[in-house]
Design goal:
This protein has about 350 residues and is mainly beta. The chain contains two helices and 24 strands. The structure holds calcium ion (CA) (4 copies).
Length: about 350
Amino acid sequence: MREWCSFFTALISVLLLLWIFASRPAIARDNTVLFDFDGDGKTDIALYRPGIWTQTVRGTSHFYVRNSSTGETMVIPFGAGGDRPAVADYDLDGKADVAIFRSWEDTLKVPWEASDYWIRYSSTGQTEVIYHFGYGTVINRNFVEDGRPELGVFTHRVLGDPTDPCYIDGFLLASGINLFQKDITEECSGGWNRRMPALGDYNNDGYSDAAIFVRNFVVRGSSYYEIWPSPFVAGYTEPPIVRPFDVELIAPGDYDADGKTDLAGANIVQGRYRWKIEFSSTGELWQLPWGIAGDKIVPGDYDGDGKTDPAVFRPSDGTWYIFRSSDWGWEEHQWGLGTDIPIPEPNSF
Ligand SMILES: [Ca+2]
Ligand SMILES: [Ca+2]
Ligand SMILES: [Ca+2]
Ligand SMILES: [Ca+2]
């Protein structure tokens, strides 16, 4: 009798485990940066319009959001001139939260000067101001711990003699009182590379990975992605995954909806963009002419089918051009000014 009991207990445990794994969503991507303000699962066309900023005046900034569910425009006054947008879904209610990063670096040029995040949570309408240590390109998304985005920056620090400077690039994240820092490179003057964050979930574990794109300005074809797969921990010593990828502009996203971010970007060929996307599921390379020189690359899932859609914002006439992955149709929206910052543009914050 006792044997039968333990047999059934074991059987139930196995079934329970199978059920847990079967019910896990196949796609575990970090959705905190879908830029979906109305919560319908589709990226919304959205802009940040900085307020005026002079020595004596800081005018109010505005977020403009076109709800994909209704087509209505929301105008949200938030932040001021000099602030940068920092949109993400911080309270995990499925809706993007308006937020800005007020970095004093721009005025004082003092490294490691304190800065503040101002976040208005969509679930409560309350605004929270959070002190933040560090400055640089805003990279807020989910890197560690629970699903909430960490507050983070990609830092570029000067070392030593300013006339013969060396630079350190790295990631700096804050999760509550915990700080995570990861320096990724040190380079002295004479380098021909420019490093920029190329964030995504390349291994499909639900966390964004520390990843950059290294663009070589001198030797054509020698640019590459460099990825340190999550988990993001201090003192991570594994060498990065290096993936040569010849593009001038980056557009990482999940274009084949397998949960893994795909290497993607565009080259400028005779004044037009030629997108290159390497599907992580098959390794196949997809090329697509989409956009012209000067356009801002704004990939997102605008039709909500789980696949990233190639898209551009054209500052010269304020028009969005979106190539829908669901039916390979396209749409055009004249919406915004040339000086606006499109929210879905990588590294625009
Ligand atoms: Ca939406
Ligand atoms: Ca939210
Ligand atoms: Ca993929
Ligand atoms: Ca899509």
